[in-house]
Amino acid sequence: MRRSAIASLLFAFALVLAGCGMGGKTIDDIDVSKGDVPTIEFKKGFEADKTESRVIKKGDGDKILDGDSVQVHYVAANGRTGEVFDNSHELDSPMSLSVSESTALPGFYQGLLGQNIGSRVLVTVPPADGVAHLGSVEAMGLEENDTLVFVFDILEKTPSEASGEAKKAPANLPELQFNDKKQPEKFKSTKTSDKKLSKTQSAVIIKGEGAKIEAGQVVTAHYIGQLFPDGEVFNNSWTSSPQQFPVGSGGLIPCWDNELVGQTIGSRVIIACTKADAYGDSAAEQGSPEGPLIFVVDLLSAI
Fold first, then answer.
1. Which of 88, 160, 185, 262 shows the smallest number of beta carbons within 10 Å?
2. pLDDT tens digits for 268-284?
3. Is the pTM of this model over 0.70?
């Protein structure tokens, strides 16, 4: 499925942050305000040779463990110029960030692992742990030798999977299979499941107790995508980290936009999509999976 711009940035390690400049040459010389929206002051030309972090305000929540996903607000600057180039506070839109050694930007992983939920943390990231992993950075005003200066406000942990009241799936849908970690793995046809799909349908198999998703919200979710009814698994976020995407705004395939609005956070939803409600006749041209598709989606949070 197509990712939103936000989700693509996260997946490509292109989260960036905001700040401004006058100050010193070590992390201890960087000034960070204590207001609701932090400001950063340091002298331009700041360079770091290793990732370092400094707790500005310690929260009283759980520690972040390897593999956790967290909701964060962020502000940051380019150490070379001291210029602001991103600030999640301006849009009141926190990000979901996976703190995993296998998937996270090294500077994010090293700077946030072990920090407490509720904390404000300053992190300085040298090129080897930051821009070297971002690909093309010119559009963000960055150069290959730039140090990045981040301030993270760590808001909460994102649940790792759906939770709530279990529901029985309709017999006409393929059966969902699980791996040894009890995570969704794939669908398998049964004697009663449809072999062809005449119309798009969805089924809630875990009913979460969170708020209903509204059109336009950005949702964080785990999901698996497979050719209907039990063909190739072409996408599996469980092997990496949860993904973010806007729902109900036309940025997703129609079956996702139509079937996820109104679902509750915490739910696990099966969506069986006809070819027309998936990638349509131009799927092959787009490099997308062809034909009817089936997904299972764990709705973890929405902003």
1. 262
2. 999 999 999 999 999 99
3. yes
